[in-house]
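Notebook entry, structure prediction.
Reason for the run: the old model in the group folder had no record of what sequence produced it. Starting over properly, with the input documented here first.
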Amino acid sequence: MNLPKEIADLHAADKLGIAFVGIQLFQLLSIVEHQGQELVDREGIEIPSRSGSTIAYLHRYGRTSITDLAHFLGMSHQLASHRVKDLKSHGIISEERDPDDGRRTLIALSKTGKSVARKMESICQDTEAEFLILFEETGVDLFDALIKVKSALAERSLAKRISQRHQAST
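New structure, fully documented this time:
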């Protein structure tokens, strides 16, 4: 099996039950990042695969602030800053002062970053095609399911759902 070393037994946490869906998502994320890193390494790209979304955003939308990047990707400013700092150290991202607001720093892909983005785009196309095959193979469109569950929980939290279910049963 091609698993990250921290997942010694792929199905051990299954015994905890559905209430612990978070651990299943965490393990799936670990597996996808681990296997994604293999794809990135195979192309000779020396960055963490989890930075792919940052590169894809900058490739698609151009220069932006770290705040806007963090907002778009749904991550903390601190995590976005850490990823940007790492990509900057690899020469993937450049920084410049916002011409409209000198207090604000904008980030963009460097020339090297644009080259990496093109390679990452190819990896993403292959990955997307393989995920579609995997979803067909398993009978689960995981991408669609995750979007629906994410939206449903944003609309009505687990706590609210449980309270409403308890109220309806009394």
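Summary: The helical segments are 21-42, 52-61, 66-73, 77-89, 111-138, 142-155, 158-169.
The old model has been moved to the deprecated folder.
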